[in-house]
Amino acid sequence: MTTTNLDTVDSRRRQRLDTVQRSLKSRHARERRFQGMGLFAVITALVLVTILFASILMRGVPAFWQATLYLDVHLDPEVIQVDERPVRQAAESPAQFRERELVWLNQLGMVNWNGLIDEALKAHLPGEIESRQTRDLRALVASGERFALRDRVMENPGLIGQTISVKMLASADVDVWLKGNIDRSLADSRQQLSAQTREWADYLKEQGVIRNSFSTALFLNTDSRSSPASAGLAGAFMGSLFMMLIVIALTVPLGVASAIYLEEFAPRNRLTDLIEININNLAAVPSIVFGLLGAAIFVGYLGLPLSAPLVGGLVLTLMTLPTIIIATRAALRSIPPSIRQAALGIGASRVQTVFHHVLPLALPGILTGSILGVAQALGETAPLLLIGMNAFVANVPSSPMDQATALPVQIYLWQGNELRNFFEARTSAAIIVLLGLMLSLNAVAIWLRKKFETRW
Amino acid sequence: MSFKKSTLSMAIAASLAVGFTTAAQARDTIQIAGSSTVLPFASIVAEEFGASFPQFNTPVVGSGGSSGGLRQFCQGVGENTIDIANASRAIRSGEIESCNANGVNDILEVMFGYDGIVFASRIDRGEFALTPQHVFAAAAAQIPQDGQLVDNPYTRWSEIDSDLPDQEIVLVIPASNHGTREVFEEKVLHAGCDSYAEIEGDACNSLRGDGRIIEIAGDYTETLARLDAQAEAVGVFGLSFYDQNRDRLQVATVNDVTPSLETIGSGEYPVSRPLFFYVKGEHLDVIPGLAEYTEFFLSDAISGYGSPLEDAGLIPMDDEERAQALEKFQARTAVSAE
């Protein structure tokens, strides 16, 4: 009786083991499959990101270096016939002085700066250059360089009569030609430059007059259409900076204050529920909707100027606020209730509890959330298009009320520039600059989190 | 934590103060918007203007298409409305009416040159020698066959004319927010339509809806990107855009005339149009530099032969035409709805 019983128990156990053994293989296989799929997903994502970055870097990095002419320009007093630079007299009102200064500036503007550059070029080129070839000659230099030369003399009129060495950007077409971004074997009629200019460009490159130098213009100049080679990001950078300052000044205090109130003080009722749902919904509203709202309210109703970083900043503030409120609330919620109870237990008021204990502990989370929110706002383009920030602006804005563009909008504008084979690289370079800014913002967020992180 | 509270309120107060004090200041930068065909030209003038006149700021030039620009222009008078609308077509009487309704009465029209519209295809595909009739036959919704209107049967160019390349018909044209579209309809479609007695009026404008006509609302780079994706396609471009991208595009002749500065200037090439900008007369004494900008634009050094605008692909007006345009502006003759 007992042996048979034992037998059956034993056989049941063996049966069970058998079943387990049999299913084990398929269970392991399932795990391997899942892990494999996960690994595949990660690898695919990594490969795609690498392709994206590699293609941007490959196209963009060469644009940080630009064909540059190193010339000695003789500031011939025969050509630069201007009066002495006016100095403000004691008896003069600022308006009177400005008038005299303008007369002088206009004189300076009338000088044939191109002629001076022509002479400097001719000194390096072989053979006699006739006046009918002037057009080919001028195609070598970026047309904005004549203003750069003028500004140099304007700042230091004592230079007149001297020979100064200047770095001048070669024109965009020359840059394209020397970098091989246009097929060199194409027929004359399909080339952007005349045969003569191409020959000269190659000759000057050989002579070392044209060198591929790091392009400071990309960072120091504003956008330019009349002289594409001089186009830079300075204006867009300042526009973005002003917007980010406004976004930070408005969203961080407003967002953190509303999150603290909602999380720590507000009573739980239908009204606060409604508010909470709406904040979550707002965070999911497409950014272009905020742009439409901004155009209607800030520009249309309040009469704020078009294309101004102030309006852009306000629109992006609206967009970023929900993100920051949600991040701050999550950070506050992650503080263990024991901290609050302990503070209340030793007699702290609720305000003291929040500001002395909860908020400092939640700070890393709040900072991370805010920085990520601001980084997102920095990269936003769509709402800015609707408030006129996609305009062509050739001034560096000096206040948030001046017209400006923003970095991502500048990328969009360069992407649409008709001079494709020059601006394709320029666009990628701008993307690299913007990505660099984003990555450093994110790095700051990570560093802050690590620095202030508390474990309990 | 009174410190945090005070910084918070200070930050808010400061940002509000910035908003209110500066909003009261007069705008001293000219604001321009409109046609993306005119944009490169206007931007060049704006830049040269800013560099040549130290007393004025560099004007700000936005895009948005001719219609978009004129709509903004007609929104009213005041600092937060634009001063100049660029247009690649003349203003319509409906637009003048809406302008007038919003208090914009002094609409000063300035014509500054011509632009050609070209058909171009990828350089590695067949060469096209088009006529308006070819384009119409390729684009129309319905064409007459044996005395009856039938849905457009053509799928390859060679079916329309055996001299055309044996290529799929895909035509990339500007959408109706562009002034270029109007010229395309007027100078190409209508001209082609006239060769068919059976179709008249609005029927000339109805395009086939089977995906062979692609409308582009953005600028010409978008059209170029289309040609990269659909190698067989033929795109409609401005002459200046084609000029800058000759290494990728080849241009089609129309009625056996190759578009160029010369053939368009002489009127030999049929598909060209005048370019305009519209100045808001009410702003002339308010926004500094507005009149100077206009006169600078019309000067020989900027928009004449050998000027930076010609280099950028504008077909200049001759001296007499330019003098007339300047005179018209200086007399402040406003356009009115008939």
TrEMBL record, chain A:
One of its GO terms (cellular component) is plasma membrane. PROSITE patterns: ABC_TM1. It is a multi-pass membrane protein. GO terms for biological process: phosphate ion transmembrane transport. The chain crosses the membrane at residues 37-58, 233-262, 282-304, 310-332, 353-375, 429-448. One of its GO terms (molecular function) is phosphate transmembrane transporter activity. InterPro entries: DUF3333, MetI-like, MetI-like_sf, Phosphate_PstA. Its main location: membrane. It is found in: Cell inner membrane; Cell membrane. The keyword Cell division does not apply. Keywords: Cell membrane, Membrane, Transmembrane, Transmembrane helix, Transport. Residues 237-443 form the ABC transmembrane type-1 domain. Belongs to the binding-protein-dependent transport system permease family. CysTW subfamily. This is Phosphate transport system permease protein PstA. It comes from Billgrantia pellis.
From TrEMBL, chain B:
It comes from the Bacteria. It holds the Pfam family PBP_like_2. Residues 1-26 form the signal peptide. SUPFAM superfamilies: Periplasmic binding protein-like II. Coiled coil: none annotated. Residues 22-300 form the PBP domain. InterPro entries: PBP_domain (IPR024370), Phosphate_ABC_transporter (IPR050811). Gene3D superfamilies: Periplasmic binding protein-like II (3.40.190.10). Keywords: Signal. This is Phosphonate ABC transporter substrate-binding protein. The lineage of its organism: Bacteria, Pseudomonadati, Pseudomonadota, Gammaproteobacteria, Oceanospirillales.
